[in-house]
Design goal:
With about 325 residues, the chain is of the alpha/beta class. The protein has two domains: about 180 residues, Isopropylmalate Dehydrogenase (3-Layer(aba) Sandwich), CATH 3.40.718; about 130 residues, Isopropylmalate Dehydrogenase. Helix content is about 40%, strand content about 20%. It is built from eleven helices and twelve strands. The strands form two sheets. Strands 2-1-3-12-11-4-5-10-8-9 form a ten-stranded mixed beta sheet, with helices on both faces. β6 and β7 form a beta hairpin. The longest helix is centred in the middle third of the chain and has 17 residues. The protein starts with a strand and ends with a helix. GO terms for molecular function: isocitrate dehydrogenase (NAD+) activity; magnesium ion binding; NAD binding. Belongs to the isocitrate and isopropylmalate dehydrogenases family. It holds the Pfam family Iso_dh.
Amino acid sequence: MKNVTLIYGDGIGKEVMSSAVEVIKATGADINFEEEIAGLEAVEKYGEPLPKKVIDSIKKNKVALKGPVTTPVGKGFRSVNVTLRKELNLYANVRPVKTYEGLKNRYEDIDLVIIRENTEGLYAGIEKEIEGGAETTRLITKEASKRIAKYAFELARRESRKMVTALHKANICKLTDRVFLDAVNEVHKDYPEIELNDLIIDAACMNLVMYPEKYDVLLATNLFGDIVSDLCAGLIGGLGLTTGSNIGKDGAIFEAVHGSAPDIAGKDIANPTACILAGAKMLNYIGYEKEAKKIENAIEGLIKEGKYLTKDLGGNLGTKEFTKRVIERLQ
């Protein structure tokens, strides 16, 4: 049995995460979920969105499955997601993006992975007030850049991917992005079989919309990776289909990319696919590869069939009914 920290989150979190848990249990994987709370519910109960006991639980179990959480705005609280990544040193954010046969999208053959550095950049939170405004510092170090580059090349090698594209703005951020690019080029020497190129971030956004099929592994600093991953999600049908894995040396958190969507909470209309697939990524990470593949195949088959889809994908199923259909395919 494997212990996993479970965070349902806010808004639609309870609904979509319940779907993920149901599907995981239906695979027969021997998982014991240890539930913790974070976000608005934690503020109400503990006075803070990320109690220490949550971090302690993840450190103990080494793995967590997390729903979307809300950080109260204007209350002085740091982002729950950013804090978790920094506290647990989850330096690699991994977001696979691929088209699903059966959906009416403009694109048919997207299959790429975004590798985003998760601890530095503008998300380091180095800010101060200045006369007439405020100032933030973009922190980029050689150590963190080499670490995320190595992760990207290792993933490319492991998944037999042929090209890594480093995204940057070195024409403007001449010092910070030069540190990043120099580190990437240095690491690339150990992976001669993988092609490396680089692309200025604004040109990358245009090219990803025009020719997404040309790209394989996208490697980016924190902010650029965040923006590009949402752009790529839009190319395949939206955030309801995309997952994010936050990986570190001693642990990992798996989650959907989308937010808590409080406006549709409790209405049984949220698409649980991203959370279900996050559960599959989590299973694969802890050694339940067969169970993970069963989930991925069930999702792909259901979407390809086209009869049982949630409303955001052009169907009419609610959260619970869609989950039921996924489990039927598993069995």
